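Predicting holo structure, flavin-adenine dinucleotide bound.
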Amino acid sequence: MPPAAFVLERYDAVLVGAGIMSATLASLLQALDPELRLLLVERLEAPALESSAAENNAGTGHAANCELNYTPPQPDGTVATAKALAINAAFETSLEFWASLAEQGQLQPATFLHRVPHCSLVWGDADVAFLRQRHRQLSALPAFAAMEWSTDRAEIAGWMPLVMAGRRQDQPIAATRIARGMDVDFGALTRALLAPLQASGALELLLGTTVTDLQRCSAARGGGAADWRLTLRGPSVDRQVQAPFVFLGAGGGALPLLQRSGIPEADAYAGFPVSGQWLVCNDPALVERHHAKVYGKAKVGAPPMSVPHLDSRWIDGQRSLLFGPYAGFSSKFLKTGSLLDLPRSVRRRNLVPMLQVGVNNLPLVRYLINQLRQSDAERMEALRAFLPQARDQDWTLSVAGQRVQIIKRSPEGGRLQLGTEVVAAADGSLAALLGASPGASTAVTIMLEVLQRCFPQRLASPAWSERLQQLLPSVGQDLNADPALLARTRERSDALLSRAPATR
Ligand SMILES: Cc1cc2nc3c(=O)[nH]c(=O)nc-3n(C[C@H](O)[C@H](O)[C@H](O)COP(=O)(O)OP(=O)(O)OC[C@H]3O[C@@H](n4cnc5c(N)ncnc54)[C@H](O)[C@@H]3O)c2cc1C
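Done. Tokens:
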């Protein structure tokens, strides 16, 4: 079908997908160079309706306070702490950025950020021993020095009364708690980041518009790198736009666009979609009695993205409880995507790695299929391991966002990666974000990597360095290597974000 009309416009950057990642990058770019002309293209009718929507993710400000999969056990009986430290520092960087925007009056923290203790809870001798070791090692580090430990049932009941009510007495149980934890409404945050950019005219937001293709223009302007030309399918008119820099922040839609770009770096990747569901409770009486994010230990053989947790949530100002996720398999790359997404992403160069991952991860595939087959009664049974007195009528099933895990070709064969990865063209003219975890909480650190890889010279310039330093006073320093800097950074963020209500 021929397009209705073509209008060709040029921007300094085109960002595809209006989720937390593009919103964060747009906000950073505008702060570093207010003259930049930015275009953000979103296929749905509003920003943040896919993974960044509050009800599609768990809203945990991932700081590795309570997520046991970030400290895997080691053969010598210790736990690995490097990932936990990196995630903790990355979340501090996010807080630092939001704090600076709050200081400038651009963000109202109370609209998206709520303080809530982050707890881990385990039962059975082996898991209690694991948690004790984790606490011993982490609490010796400045980032986690405030971590409390308990095997005392009465004390744990004080931390999470609903979880302890009606629980078996004959089981050894242990918990840790860090009081300075966060719940984040990433949907509200995405919209709040975009609003001032649109109001100032720095950012044009095209909704209901899908990027269907992108290609390198043949002629470079003034001898520089050639622009990208993107084809946009809008509600009434198709357009083409041009830009020297493109960011594919399209969530699950990033891989197909990266493949269309034809950059050689795309060849190494394929996607493995994982769907999810939650049980949600809106009963005010129950909601009021739980004030924590409580993370447990995944079942043996379960993937890290299915670690069960019971969370206090604040979504659009309303409190609720959420339990899950129950993972599953769907061939869609977006919640609103097509069942053909996975088959369409298969290429000659990624087929073998995909098959290798399928064969090498049969227990994972089997686990996901079994999860999909779970009945309502089985889901409630899993919830009752956390909340022994949970009643069916208080909980409803809700579909979570879609995660597309990365499959990457390596010399050893196809590898399933559970983190996120920035894939950038060698000349820095295009970057895409693949993967899902730890995700939104670390958006600022991930977008700093995009800037480092795609704008290295401008980032090193006095103007950009100075502006970045104002936004992120700790930038370029290692929070984990300097306890005084960590304490200063936290104090500043807490003070500026203190409008996040200390609920209770
Ligand atoms: C079940 C689940 C639980 C999670 N829990 C947490 C958590 O507790 N804490 C945390 O920090 N993170 C969590 N995450 C991860 C987090 O939600 C994501 O990392 C984050 O939202 C990704 O943001 P994004 O902007 O990359 O993608 P998205 O928010 O998915 O946005 C991508 C956008 O691109 C649009 N798009 C796609 N293709 C096109 C196209 N061709 N043209 C135009 N637009 C397009 C989509 O419509 C969408 O709006 C969770 C994710 C899931 C699925």
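The chain has 16 helices and 22 strands.
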